[in-house]
C-alpha cells in the first residue's frame, strides 16, 4: 500500500499540483492520497480534478472546514475505488474541544487569536480506516488534544485490520521539540507506528509539519520519503507498506 499526504496551500498552484500528480512516478499506483488545504477552483473541488489527473479508478471526497481569507479551506481524500464505498467518508470535528490542562499563556494566546476551525476526514471499510487530519497552527496543548480527538474517535469505532492517520500537524520546529515528544507519546499509547519518523523535512522552510501513522496488522517493513517539488509550501510525503 502506498500513501501520500500533502498540504496543497489552497490550490494556489493547482496547475503545478496536477502536473506533479500526473507525471511524478511516486504518485503512480497510489492507494491513498490525504490532502489538506483543498479548495474550489472554477466551481470544481480540488480533489475532483486531482483524482482525474491520477487516472481512472479513483474516488474522492472533500469537506470544507472554514473560509480562509474568502477561500474555502478543507480536507480531502482520494482513494483507489475498491478500498471504500463512495458514501464511507465522514467528517470528525476537531474544534470546540474541552482542554482542561492548557497553560495560562496558551489560553491567553488562543483568546487573542481565536483557533481556526479544523476537521478530520474518516473513511472506513471492514478492513481499513483512514483519517485525514489538519491540526491548528497555534497552541501546543491545543494541537495535542486535536490529535487525541482522532485517537479517541478511532478507539470508539469497530475494530479494523489497519488504521492510517495522515496529514499536517503544524508542528513548527524540529522533531526534538516538546510537542513532537508529546504527540509521539500519545501515538505510542494508541499503538500507532509513525511511518514517517525518519523524515526531517516536509516543508520548504526545512521544518517537519506532516506525518503518517499506522496501527494494526502492519507488514514487517515500510519506508517513507518526500519529493522536492514547489507546487506548495509543503512537500508531498509518502509512505509505503
Overview of this protein structure:
The radius of gyration is 17 Å and the shape is globular. The protein has five helices and 14 strands. The protein is an alpha+beta fold. It has a six-stranded mixed sheet with strand order 5-6-2-1-14-13, covered by helices on one side. Strands 7-8-9-10-12-11 form a six-stranded mixed sheet, with helices on one face.
Task: Produce the secondary structure layout.
Layout: E1 2-7, H1 14-23, E2 32-38, E3 40-41, E4 44-45, H2 46-53, E5 58-68, E6 71-80, E7 90-93, H3 104-112, E8 119-124, E9 128-134, H4 140-156, E10 162-168, H5 178-189, E11 193-194, E12 210-216, E13 223-226, E14 237-240
Produce a short descriptive summary.
The chain is an alpha+beta fold and 241 residues long. It has one domain (2-240): 4-Layer Sandwich (Deoxyribonuclease I, Chain A), CATH 3.60.10. Helices cover 23% and strands 33% of the residues.
Mean pLDDT: 89
CATH homologous superfamily assignment:
Endonuclease/exonuclease/phosphatase
What strand line-up does the widest sheet have?
A: 5-6-2-1-14-13
Number of strands: 14
The number of domains: 1
Structural class: alpha+beta
In terms of quaternary structure, the protein is single chain
CATH architectural grouping: 4-Layer Sandwich
What is the overall silhouette?
Answer: globular
Q: Rg to the nearest angstrom?
A: 17 Å
Q: Indicate the percent of residues in helices.
A: 10-25%
- End-to-end separation in angstroms reads 5 Å
Q: What is the CATH class designation? A: Alpha Beta
Number of helices: 5
Low-confidence spans: none
Strand content: 25-35%
Could you give the order of the helices and strands? Answer: EHEEEHEEEHEEHEHEEEE
**And the CATH topology?**
Deoxyribonuclease I, Chain A
Tell me about the biggest sheet? 6 strands, mixed
Amino acid at each position: 500500500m502506498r500513501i501520500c499526504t500533502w498540504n496543497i496551500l489552497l490550490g494556489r498552484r493547482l496547475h503545478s499540483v496536477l502536473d506533479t500528480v500526473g507525471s511524478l512516478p511516486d504518485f503512480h499506483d497510489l492507494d491513498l492520497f490525504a490532502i489538506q488545504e483543498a479548495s474550489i477552483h472554477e466551481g470544481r473541488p480540488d480533489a475532483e480534478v486531482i483524482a482525474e489527473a491520477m487516472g481512472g479508478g479513483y474516488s474522492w471526497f472533500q469537506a470544507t472546514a472554514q473560509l480562509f481569507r474568502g477561500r474555502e479551506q478543507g480536507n480531502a481524500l482520494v482513494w483507489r475505488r475498491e478500498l471504500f464505498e463512495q458514501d464511507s467518508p465522514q467528517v470528525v470535528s476537531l474544534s470546540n474541544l474541552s482542554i482542561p490542562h492548557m497553560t495560562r499563556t496558551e489560553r491567553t494566546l488562543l483568546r487573542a487569536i481565536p483557533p481556526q476551525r479544523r476537521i478530520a476526514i474518516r473513511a472506513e471499510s471492514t478492513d481499513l480506516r483512514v483519517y485525514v487530519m489538519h491540526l491548528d497552527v497555534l497552541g501546543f496543548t491545543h494541537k495535542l488534544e486535536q490529535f487525541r480527538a482522532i485517537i479517541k474517535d478511532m478507539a470508539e469505532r469497530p475494530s479494523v485490520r489497519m488504521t492510517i492517520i495522515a496529514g499536517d500537524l503544524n508542528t513548527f520546529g524540529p522533531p526534538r521539540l516538546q510537542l513532537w515528544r508529546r504527540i509521539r507519546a500519545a501515538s505510542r499509547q494508541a499503538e500507532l507506528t509513525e511511518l514517517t519518523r525518519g523524515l526531517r523535512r516536509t516543508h520548504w522552510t526545512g521544518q517537519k509539519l506532516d506525518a503518517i501513522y499506522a496501527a494494526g496488522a502492519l507488514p514487517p517493513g515500510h519506508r517513507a520519503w518526500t519529493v522536492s517539488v514547489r507546487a506548495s509550501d509543503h512537500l508531498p510525503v509518502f509512505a509505503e507498506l
